[in-house]
Structures
1.
Amino acid sequence: MPIPASQPVAPAVLTDLLDGRWAHVRREARVRMAALPSPATYDLTTEQHREQVFAELHELAKSGYPRVGFPVSHGGEGDLGGSLTSFEMLGFGDLSLMVKAGVQWGLFGGAVEALGTERHHDRYLRDIIELRLPGCFAMTETGHGSDVQHLRTTATYDPATGEFVVHTPHEAARKEYIGNAARDGRIAVVFAQLIAGGSEHGVHALLVPLRDEAGLTLPGITIEDCGRKAGLNGVDNGRIWFDQVRVPRDALLNRYGDVAEDGTYSSPIEGDSRRFFTMLGTLIRGRISVAGAAGSATKSALTIAIRYALERRQFTRPDSDDEVVLLDYLAHQRKLLPALATTYALHFAQEELVTTLHELTTDDHRQRELESRAAGLKAATTWHATHTIQTCREACGGAGYLAENRLPQLKADTDVFTTFEGDNTVLSQLVAKGLLTGYQQHLHELGSVGMARFIADQFVGTVIERTAARSLIERLVGAVTARDEDADLLDRGWHLRLFEDREKHVLDTLARRLRRAGEPGADAFEVFNAAQDHVLRAARVHIERVVLEAFVAAVDRCADPDAAALLGRVCDLHVLSTVEADLDWFLGHGRVSTAKAKAVTGAVNDLCRHLRPHAAVLVGAFAIPDPLVAAPIASGAERDRQDAQRGHDQDRLPRKEDSGRATAS
Amino acid sequence: MPIPASQPVAPAVLTDLLDGRWAHVRREARVRMAALPSPATYDLTTEQHREQVFAELHELAKSGYPRVGFPVSHGGEGDLGGSLTSFEMLGFGDLSLMVKAGVQWGLFGGAVEALGTERHHDRYLRDIIELRLPGCFAMTETGHGSDVQHLRTTATYDPATGEFVVHTPHEAARKEYIGNAARDGRIAVVFAQLIAGGSEHGVHALLVPLRDEAGLTLPGITIEDCGRKAGLNGVDNGRIWFDQVRVPRDALLNRYGDVAEDGTYSSPIEGDSRRFFTMLGTLIRGRISVAGAAGSATKSALTIAIRYALERRQFTRPDSDDEVVLLDYLAHQRKLLPALATTYALHFAQEELVTTLHELTTDDHRQRELESRAAGLKAATTWHATHTIQTCREACGGAGYLAENRLPQLKADTDVFTTFEGDNTVLSQLVAKGLLTGYQQHLHELGSVGMARFIADQFVGTVIERTAARSLIERLVGAVTARDEDADLLDRGWHLRLFEDREKHVLDTLARRLRRAGEPGADAFEVFNAAQDHVLRAARVHIERVVLEAFVAAVDRCADPDAAALLGRVCDLHVLSTVEADLDWFLGHGRVSTAKAKAVTGAVNDLCRHLRPHAAVLVGAFAIPDPLVAAPIASGAERDRQDAQRGHDQDRLPRKEDSGRATAS
């Protein structure tokens, strides 16, 4: 497969494209963070680390950082996209600080803003923004982590005193893993089953004070430290029990449900379940922030591993004393370069999601679609981070295991991202369910011809909604009329058709399969459970299509022709390595022939070789300031040592006998 | 696909089979370790952890543990298999202690024993066994980690004084990552290029004192602490520089090469390279020990994750208030049960390898085959550990991220296993190279008919050498004459044929491809490098066949029919999930039809469901004592909380309205 030559590109050209709409936020964050990088934390005790992070959080508050996302009316700047972008940038520093900031301003502050009303905003927002009131987001319980709709903490209204009584009825109902709880939080947004007028009204949120100004726990509150974790030890996670704690009626964050003085419940939203998911929907930003930080950590890891791979040498070439640079080995390229390509793809998908959310006006349908995409991208990005950072660690061998080279901390800190702010497996099911909702409603009404038409319509409709480059994608998809088996492996239209067709097929067969759940006598749980691997695949292939389209749109936006050409090859590698990872499906469903399957593997190898000379530029474009990259193995020390060796080797004695070549390469 | 019903089996029956030949060593270790489990280390500073581990190492020495593997003539018991098994058992405790013991008695003590001669044995072995002389194994250098044949430390013989001068010529030649160096080691086996009589003789090992009895570093020695690592922080890794350090002539471990008083070099082995690999070959035990410990850590992680999955509930069934046990979800079964099945498979392969090594008499050919198998199994087992422990962490959600539940430590400690004692990617290439050696020698001599015959012969020969159950395997392989497309998915003969055929094909095509390297004008490095993914696949499929045959042999050894039947299903799940992971190859090479490919996925689901009721027994059979499992989530706390919730829920108020079902499942 002939690959068009790629010209050298200056990293700054790519950086401009990657930086996108909130480039100013990124540039400012780089300057601020490079000037005062977080000191290394790996030798700190838990308490020392927490202290350092809390001090840094205060510095952040002073810098005005948290204002960006809050409303102008309460001292903020009302720039949601800028706020999400600045969270992403925090991901280049100590991830404990990112999470601590996320708890204070994203979850806690965000809940007060989104679920509260004017009285809460007036009373709390400024103190929250300026960190005079450190708070917690107390949703998760020990017994209910993923299934938070069924949590068991109660908030019972007592009309005699006009108070809510907040209570932990048993051990499984204690609040679990609450950030800011073990040390710094003074107040919490507590999610509890609301009981008023003698009945339950589902989960609502209330503000419950935890500690006084001196930091002493208030009466009725018990807090336990969750203790040491795999990572993120600068965040003070704790467990909270409430023993009949009384708070005034106006502690209820009452935007979506209120209780009158006499105990009468009222809500603008019908149905506990719908109301609950509306409340959760306002918290979409948490997932987007986690995905952004995971992306940043992945970029840090790749920057370290690829810079090392460009300097580190191991084993000589046959019949030569030249030692081979690691990144010249195909196996090493295959470890790092497809992961780098997919990191680009996910970056552009994330950027597009942030932009769409930023521009969102009140529109129930698009909100749901965005929630689904945020959930899916969060799953994809955090799994990619876990996999890639692991690979980077291994690619750096023992050096990658040393704390000073940062990969261990990046791995440990991001590891929980796959299961917090929504377990990825659970989120993937939500994505699939969202895709099926339209399906299931319609399939009952339509005959098979109508169904086929509906399926086609559904996807055209979905494409229209989802990508910023609709006309481009449609043009590319339709550009080639030849049989796809003959399509060139680098044909973008073929790539797009392949991903779209796969999604259609997986979703179509899944919908048919799940219809059985509605048949008389069927055990709905068993039908769904037996198809769970199919459900997870549906979510994955859907997100893979969305990500690809975002990447294609970004390449199209690139005004510099050389940069666009190079990015095109990165996109090719992303597509074909994704296809290669799912070849069993494509082969098993007759979407590629065995000849083409082999060609895909060959093309991945060719593209790795092709992009090898551009690897430094491609990680350089992430523009992570050197003080944040920090790892000694990524800072030229290895090159210096190689030079010293070469200097020395010139004076070596001749070997008495030729040892023969016995390298492992 | 109908799966024969499996009867309940007592875990002890399986434990007997798993415990195998060195059952007495395992039982003794369980009792000893359960009586005094390592205290939790996650809150310790590096220094505290090192102190604790060194104290535990002294306890081990007192218990007589290290004696098992050393020769009877020097206070040992001469039981190599027992020694390797007891290393494996240490893997159920603090892995820092396992590695520290491995450095002292496996690497350092093993090198003195294997590379030294009587004078070294007499002088050092007892002190080593009894830990009066803590030592290091100083092979790796900063510039040469994998390619140790080219390390740069020199040992130059000075006939004027009868001494060797050990020297670090430049920064890349400093000794790197040396266990026991930063704190406790008093002496080191140092690997250096031997220079005598004015020429180099390749890498040899010498004993070089590092510290005096008071622990002070000796003149000419500089030691630096490697500092904090991702895990294994109870091991004091350090860097060592030698500045013209003089040691007497008899410091040379001279079994494979000696220097006379006048500087004349002599060796029983011709050729630097062959000599070097003979010296390395004696260190095969290190790789086997790492594989064993990785297996133990994997068993610990699976025990924790599966016990939790059997008690943890999340989300209600449709139209019910019953919350579903995690392991009832197909997605959760798929995360844990195939990994459990492969853990069984690798256990039996490891056991077989230990037995074969234990019984080995001097036989050059079998030694090389065993080295290759040890390298391949080490790669397979440690990658499986990394993958499985990661999965277990995720399967336990936030609870899996808490240090008290041990998964973070298991993950961090074992993470380096994939790259130490040989980087897995490098080891895999050694395996492939070993398989090809015979090939390449023969292919030049044979025409195509002869080659085909040779290929067939080669594999029969290989099978004969490798498995303890040769006649069984041959009977099974030959048992079915029907077309394989029609073979039952649980047909063991089909499994064996499928794996053997894949190995033949991959190796055959690889051999043809690599022959090009010998053609005139070919760049041998480029030819080899372009095929590197093919090379890695060859190693993997070879090891997968070896592992499968070991599992099949173990099922055959099982005298209890119910246990054998259950193990048969575990073996089926291992085989079919391995096939599923490589379906792109089997489909792409016409080895399974698309219909059969779908059936494989269905069968994996069916086998997961089938084994679900036996999951507790299958992890129980590992017989890890409760004080070593240790994690609170694996000890019934979750069940107690579920009970408390159920008790409480009986008194709950009725909901005012049906909330509708909105679970993610």
Note: The first strand of chain B starts at residue 135 and ends at 138.
2.
Amino acid sequence: MRMVIAQGGGPTAVINESLAAAVRRARALGAKTVLGARNGIRGLAEDRLVDLTALDAAALDAVAATACSALGSTRDKPDAAYLERVAATLDRRGLDAMLYIGGNDTARTLALLAASAAAAGRTLACVHVPKTIDNDLVDSDLSPGWPSAARFVANAFAGLDMDMWAMPGIYVGVVMGRHAGWLTAAAALWRRGADDGPHLVYVPERPFAADRFADDVRAVAARLGRCVVAVSEGIAGADGKPAVQALVEQAGGELECDAHGNVQLTTSALGEALRGHLLASGIIGRVRADTLGFVQRAYAECRSPVDVDAARRVGTAAAEAAAAGHSGAVTIRADGASLSTGLVPLDRVAGKKRLMPEEFLAAERADVAPAFLEYALPLVGPPPPLAHLDMAADGTVHVA
Amino acid sequence: MRMVIAQGGGPTAVINESLAAAVRRARALGAKTVLGARNGIRGLAEDRLVDLTALDAAALDAVAATACSALGSTRDKPDAAYLERVAATLDRRGLDAMLYIGGNDTARTLALLAASAAAAGRTLACVHVPKTIDNDLVDSDLSPGWPSAARFVANAFAGLDMDMWAMPGIYVGVVMGRHAGWLTAAAALWRRGADDGPHLVYVPERPFAADRFADDVRAVAARLGRCVVAVSEGIAGADGKPAVQALVEQAGGELECDAHGNVQLTTSALGEALRGHLLASGIIGRVRADTLGFVQRAYAECRSPVDVDAARRVGTAAAEAAAAGHSGAVTIRADGASLSTGLVPLDRVAGKKRLMPEEFLAAERADVAPAFLEYALPLVGPPPPLAHLDMAADGTVHVA
């Protein structure tokens, strides 16, 4: 086997565990060459490749432990001419296997490459290695990268809720997730008492109504003196219009759009619009909105042990599939924290999205359901210290 | 001794270490009563106190390990009538010592209380326990709470720089700090190579000029293909006008002000204004601005071991001072990671700010100087795994 491996899309805390595991397994299986492509498939189009065949084990371990794509990444969607440049590099280097670590867009790119190789009669095992903090890859129970990002979000909201408890106020935290609410839902993972926040969780799977939102916040704040809200960046109304667009239009403002006229979600606009809506709704007192932003996918020191295990397993399985000459998408199943991998056709994963199922969301409230916690808690690792100093009705103090 | 302890201002990751250490030491010194005031001095004004005299050691350890003020906090600045209500509670409970954990505003409140007790001929040892992520308490080499927040910011920017390296772009991260740049400066702590980000660091100690900023960013982006910027929320022009105000006015926008007409710094406005200014300056490509927000002071799982040590030492020293009947502000000195405490009059610390010294900032560039790194690195703990997969000119790969 002469293999190349690449990384696509956004980073995760464990993406390099998959890279290192695939390199280790390919070498153990006798691969003649193991190359890494710089910046995903773009490195193949531009012949920017690094030779990992003989990289020493300690260096590989150090790369594995580092957060964020060590080879660099891309979101390039290749057209026919681009694919020809890739094919030229594959031929020139004599490569017969490609592993591509990424999400559903990356899988689509790999499916295009596999189809073009097949049409040209080229022997090329194309294996997708799952990775995304969005947790939205189909045919898998988790997407490697999500448990660690989920842990970061859970840690963040546990602290934010204590912050708002200590000095009462209303806090709105915007979490990544354009289509699926998995990462936002993780904000609820370290809740223990009935009054712990986040008290409201808004995900894209449910239509968002601004007036209902303000009523929800008002009710929680009236009951507890504080309200902590977790919101997905991609929430939209029942009409499909992004919430940020509806809110900014309602407030008479203008919204930034990209070159294609699509509303920009990668700004702080949604958080500020939600904050403005609460203030305009007559909610008084401290109201803060933060957009967690890139730090939630790139933080250098927050890994779930199960996520590390998952990332290694999918890398190892991908190298084994490629060595056997198979193409496909590696999948991963979880029974609690016990993991196993599989391989499905690329088209089953490419471009598809797995949304949160109904049973993971509360029926009547903007919240997760207990089934989500049962699913997620085994995946994210043990909680951090979170002792509340509570006072009982009789004036005695106890720690919970 | 009959002691009450309270927490003021914003939270830190180690503020409860000071609380627990003070309680332990006061009990060991034979204190008859150790109470905790809910929500800082407000708990005294409203007689909301919890009895920590007999709280068991394991529960106290659990509280100590938890981030964010376990007793609750306040920013109340008491007037004469408020201080009378506090005095009434002190008398009713027979308290003769008060420890107040907080920053320079909290020290000022405590100084007011001490003066009013002295004027009334009441015996009350008033001891300030230093704490603030701003690192701006005078007569100390560090403020407990800052090393852990600094570690969070360093971890965040290390990942953000790798994120921007993997998929090139421009990133502006706004960090807490209205007057002092200590926390923003920490963004630079995990840099190793000359090209590592943050590439530009803007602190309130230096006047900010928007055009120079755009030129700086353009130059870095031209050289490296990316640019990572750390900015303090409190940066201001040479005329003292907040940068956010100048930028929003220049762009023809309107800025949110509080009830006193002061510009709101606790929104995402500065980051978005800096981003808008870069785009208006003709900088093209991906430009992202995030405001790190409350998570940087409240994250549940990022503590520096030296910070834990510092927080315990100041709590212990405060209990000892109070038991000896002394009032004052506990100070802390560092020789590398080796710490020692002292006690100075409250007025030396109350309301005063320690800015970054000239030698901690680069002379010509928007950056920290090596002396800052020498100061800070022993305080924040070991770096996380940060292995770069670099390619040498001869095509071989090496990990640094």
Note: DSSP finds 14 helices and 13 strands in chain B.
